[in-house]
Amino acid sequence: MPYLKNEHKQNASSHAVVIGSGITGLLTARVLVEHFDFVTIVERDELPELPEYRQGVPQTHHVHILLTQGQQILEQLFPGIKAQLEKAGAPSIDWVSDFTTLNMWGWVSRTSSELVTYTCSRVFLEWLIRQRLSNYQNLEFVTSTLFKGLLVNTENQVSGVKLHCKNSTLDTELTADLVVDASGRNSQLPKFLEDIGYQVPKTTIINSFWFFRT
Ligand SMILES: Cc1cc2nc3c(=O)[nH]c(=O)nc-3n(C[C@H](O)[C@H](O)[C@H](O)COP(=O)(O)OP(=O)(O)OC[C@H]3O[C@@H](n4cnc5c(N)ncnc54)[C@H](O)[C@@H]3O)c2cc1C
Question: Across all residues in the chain, what is the average pLDDT?
Answer without folding.
Answer: 91
